[in-house]
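Technical annex, item 7. During the second reporting period the consortium partners agreed on a shared format for inverse folding records so that results from different sites could be compared directly. Each record opens with the tokenized structure and is followed by the designed sequence. A conforming record, contributed by the partner at site C, is shown below for reference.
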């Protein structure tokens, strides 16, 4: 008695569902929160539906070729079907989709919104994001690895790179835009409502490329205004003996040569600004959660967590010193 083999139809049919289940709301074109992402979402479903219909048609034709009648096989071999299905249909279908896609995406257009847009510079670095807010008075407020924006207001991003090609992509909000050395590209975002979205560098940029992510936090306008006022302020003074010890270690160990903490002698520009690092959603470009334990891990062994990043590991600190440094940095809110 031969054992019947079960065809892998069910596992194969489940693959699309598994793929879609991996698209979490925080980073997915299937969960748009702005007009640009809405258009991409619409176009995506049109392409999914069209490609699905074509795939089914190909399966039917393949079945006819394998198990069809002699008459149907002769029909499949006619020159008319080969030219029509193999040349005319793809050219016409792809041309229609291209023209429709340009219309849906409004190629060359911008996101329409009332009022003056918020202007933000985003600089891609290996492997993190420098985010700089500017105003008409020339004041600049710098943060890193997260972009906070007000809902209902256009945000005009100036996208540049400090080294190699990067690509800025927040699927929930817009399509990706490359960041090319020597060039400034622009992207306008508009969030319909408050939400946290995750972005990713979408162009391979070196060893830690996969760990170069960021968060976009859309906030109600009044909440954003409060956050911005807090972000403009210098770092708070240490409040406890452990925090004071951590600040002394930070300054004495040369950390200020790479990092800025406004209100202190630390004024480095090589690495991220740490003035309010304790209030960020994550550490190391969305690689770690933001808490004292993660800060200590990062200081001690950053190369193991994110290989090839620009910060050397600091194995010179004792556990007590690491705790003090982490407590100080966590207090910078």
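Designed sequence (site C submission):
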């Amino acid at each position: 008695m031969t054992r019947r083999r079960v065809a892998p139809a069910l596992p194969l049919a489940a693959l699309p569902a598994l793929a879609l289940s991996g698209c979490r709301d925080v980073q997915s074109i299937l969960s748009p929160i702005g007009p640009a992402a809405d258009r991409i979402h619409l176009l995506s479903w049109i392409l999914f539906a069209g490609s699905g219909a074509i795939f089914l048609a190909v399966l039917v034709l393949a079945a006819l070729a394998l198990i069809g009648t002699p008459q149907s096989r002769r029909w499949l071999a006619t020159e008319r079907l080969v030219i029509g299905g193999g040349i005319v249909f793809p050219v016409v279908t792809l041309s229609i989709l291209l023209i429709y896609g340009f219309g849906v995406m409004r190629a060359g257009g911008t996101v329409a919104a009332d009022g003056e847009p918020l202007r933000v510079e985003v600089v891609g670095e290996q492997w993190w994001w420098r985010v700089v807010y500017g105003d008409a008075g020339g004041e600049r407020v710098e943060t890193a690895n997260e972009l906070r924006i007000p809902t209902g207001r256009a945000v005009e991003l100036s996208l540049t790179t400090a080294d190699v090609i990067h690509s800025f992509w927040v699927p929930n909000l817009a399509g990706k835009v490359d960041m090319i050395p020597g060039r400034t590209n622009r992207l306008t975002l508009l969030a319909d409502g408050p939400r946290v979205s995750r972005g990713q560098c979408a162009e391979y940029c070196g060893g830690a490329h996969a760990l170069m992510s960021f968060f976009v936090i859309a906030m109600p306008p009044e909440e954003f205004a409060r956050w911005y006022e807090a972000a403009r302020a210098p770092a708070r003074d240490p409040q406890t003996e452990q925090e004071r010890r951590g600040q002394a270690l930070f300054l004495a160990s040369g950390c200020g040569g790479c990092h800025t903490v406004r209100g202190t002698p630390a004024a480095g520009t090589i690495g991220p600004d740490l003035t309010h690092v304790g209030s960020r959603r994550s550490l190391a470009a969305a690689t770690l959660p933001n808490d004292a334990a993660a800060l200590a891990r990062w200081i001690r062994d950053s190369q193991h967590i994110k290989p090839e990043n620009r910060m050397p590991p600091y194995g010179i600190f004792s556990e007590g010193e690491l705790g003090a440094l982490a407590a100080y940095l966590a207090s910078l809110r």
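Confidence is low (pLDDT under 50) at residues 1-14. The first helix runs from residue 9 to 21. All partners now use this format for quarterly exchanges.
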